[in-house]
Each structure stands twice: as structure tokens, then as C-alpha cells.
Design goal:
single chain, 181 residues, alpha/beta, Rossmann fold, 7 strands, binds flavin mononucleotide
Amino acid sequence: MKILIAYGTRYGTTKEIAHWMYERLPDGDHDVYPVEKVKSLEPYSHVIIGSPLYDDDLLEEVKTFIRERCSEFRKLHVGVFGVALHHLGKGLYGNPDGGLAYFDRFLKNLPVKPIYSRLLGGAIHPELLNDEDRQLLQRFYEKHGTEGIPFQQEAKKSEAWQFVEKFFQYCQVKEKLKKRI
Ligand SMILES: Cc1cc2nc3c(=O)[nH]c(=O)nc-3n(C[C@H](O)[C@H](O)[C@H](O)COP(=O)(O)O)c2cc1C
């Protein structure tokens, strides 16, 4: 078994989550890379793909990765995680299912059905934001009556570890079902 965790990130939270997941993988020679650095999926039996949510969409590089690797996914055990704020359905943009609605689109973009998928909590570090993102969030929070962009931390190592544990539980179930056929 060789596992790849491939992620996109703008400000590092999804990278941190991917590395937490990496710590929880079974013993072995596994990899954790940003999607742009993945040369081939050939060496892997399992791939876990992660993207944060920006403005109700995936990061462009993750969409490209999915598009270009489409045919290779079919041979692998695939897991998917999204990273968003208010990921339990409160909705950053006034939509009660904000994060979750985007996540459904993420899954629809995939050429295969993942073995396990889950939306995880992200973070906002206002001091890291580039001008465009700062302005966008400032407008958003002003509209909702908040002055300034609040620091937010919803990313948790325990959630990342639970993701990995569940993913492998479901992989085992898949293997057992295959043997029965
Ligand atoms: C400009 C901007 C737009 C965002 N849009 C959304 C959004 O539409 N819905 C949401 O739940 N979170 C949104 N977020 C929160 C990000 O998903 C969260 O900050 C995530 O942790 C970013 O991950 P990264 O640090 O790996 O890039 C947004 C964040 C920024 C800075």
C-alpha cells in the first residue's frame, strides 16, 4: 500500500490539515504533496485529495489536477476532503448550506465516487490575506455587521485524524465486498 495526500492551499490551512492526516497514515513510505508537485499517480494505491473553499469554488489547481488525472483515479482508492468555514452548514454567505453545497459540487466534479469524503473546518488568519481577499472579506463582514475580519480557527487535528481512520475503515469494507463478488 502506498498513499498520496494531494492538496491545494492559498494560506496554508489545508496544507496543515494534509500533514496532520499524513501523521495518521499506517506505517509505510507515503507522500504528501501540493497538487502541482504530483508527477504521476502510478506508484500509489490510495489517493486523498483536499481543497479549500474560496467563493463557493475549489482552487483552480485542484480542478486542473482532477481534470488531468481523471483516468488514473479509477484504479485507486480515492478519498476527498474540503476545507471551509462554517462547515457544519451555517453558511458564510448567508446560504444555510454554504460549505456543504460547494462540497457537493466538488464531488460531482470527480470522475469516480470517493470511498470517503468529508468537509473539514478551516481557518482565517487576517494578517496573511492578500489585498484582493482582504477587500472581499471586509465587504462580506461589513454587510453582516462585523467590523474588521475576525481571526477564525476551526481546523482541528482530531478531525483530520478521524478522516483518515474512517477512510481506511471504508477501504477495508470495499476490499471485503470485492472478495465476496
Ligand atoms: C477570500 C476568501 C473567500 C472565502 N470563501 C469562503 C466561502 O465561500 N465559504 C466558506 O465556507 N469559506 C470561505 N472561505 C474560508 C476558507 O475556506 C478558509 O479560510 C480555508 O481555511 C482556507 O484554506 P487555505 O488556508 O488552505 O487556503 C474564504 C476565505 C477567503 C480568504
